[in-house]
Specification:
Blueprint: H1 7-33, E1 38-43, H2 51-63, E2 68-74, H3 77-90, E3 94-98, E4 111-117, H4 126-136, E5 137-148, H5 153-169, H6 179-185, E6 189-197, E7 206-213
Parallel strand pairs: 1-2, 1-4, 2-3, 4-5
Antiparallel strand pairs: 5-7, 6-7
The structure holds S-adenosylmethionine (SAM).
């Protein structure tokens, strides 16, 4: 088993997140995928929780005489087998690749949009991943994200205290990353919009937004 394989996390991910998906997360997935067209990469695609929303975006694109060419990447083959099944269930034709965000197996300027849904918390080398996002996006292409981030005050201190245990339980997920700051600081990305929303503590707050590839 490689460092990226976590069969137990993959098996419990859907049941553990079902309530949050139905209540808190669905609007953010809609935000992430709304109006997408062209070549789209879903980074850390997991079990495929965004697929119904990708299908809706693809259908909208087709109605507008366009299309959406979905590419799905994750390093965990247990996640990917669930993603393949979910893609079939939802009728999402997609290219599925096992790989890491820090070393994307795609040419420069090859995507119109890259999505990150709850992935920035887990990627071990965030700067390398953002370099790669900037590289594979065409100039002006969009990096769309919805992530959970570090809270302020007491909630933030609790996150920091429980982070070591949480990280072990949740397959490398960190509660205390300031992803908005990381995205804003990255030279290859120009953050255009960020909105902050409540999540489900300790996985709260959430940020969602859009950055544009600068070169
Ligand atoms: C919390 S899950 C989110 C899954 C999915 N995006 C969603 O919205 O439900 C985080 C995902 O990131 C993946 N991941 C972990 N390290 C990664 C890396 N270096 N590059 C890309 N994905 C990674 C995990 O395998 C897992 O599927």
């Amino acid at each position: 088993m490689t460092d990226h394989e976590n069969p137990l996390f993959a098996a419990i991910y859907d049941p553990a997140t079902a309530l949050a998906e139905a209540t808190v997360l669905a609007p953010h997935r809609r935000y992430l995928t709304n109006g997408l067209a062209g070549r789209v990469l879903d980074l850390g695609t997991g079990t495929g929780a965004s697929f119904p929303f990708l299908v809706a975006a693809r259908d909208d694109a087709r109605r507008a005489d366009d299309d959406l060419d979905a590419h799905l990447l994750d390093p965990d083959r247990h996640m990917l087998s669930r993603a393949r099944r979910a893609a079939r269930t939802h009728g999402l034709d997609a290219t599925v690749v096992c790989g890491v965000a820090e070393s994307l197996p795609y040419p420069d300027d090859s995507f119109d949009a890259v999505l990150s849904a709850l992935v920035g918390c887990t990627v071990p080398d965030l700067d390398a991943a953002l370099d790669e996002v900037g590289r594979v996006l065409r100039p002006g292409g969009q990096f769309r994200f919805f992530e959970h981030v570090a809270a302020d005050g007491l909630q933030g201190r609790v996150q920091t205290a429980i982070d070591p245990a949480w990280t072990r339980l949740a397959a490398g997920c960190h509660l205390d990353r300031d992803l908005e700051a990381a995205y804003r600081a990255h030279p290859g990305l120009d953050v255009r919009t960020v909105e902050r929303r409540d999540g489900v503590p300790p996985v709260s707050p959430l940020v969602r937004g859009v950055a544009v590839a600068t070169e």
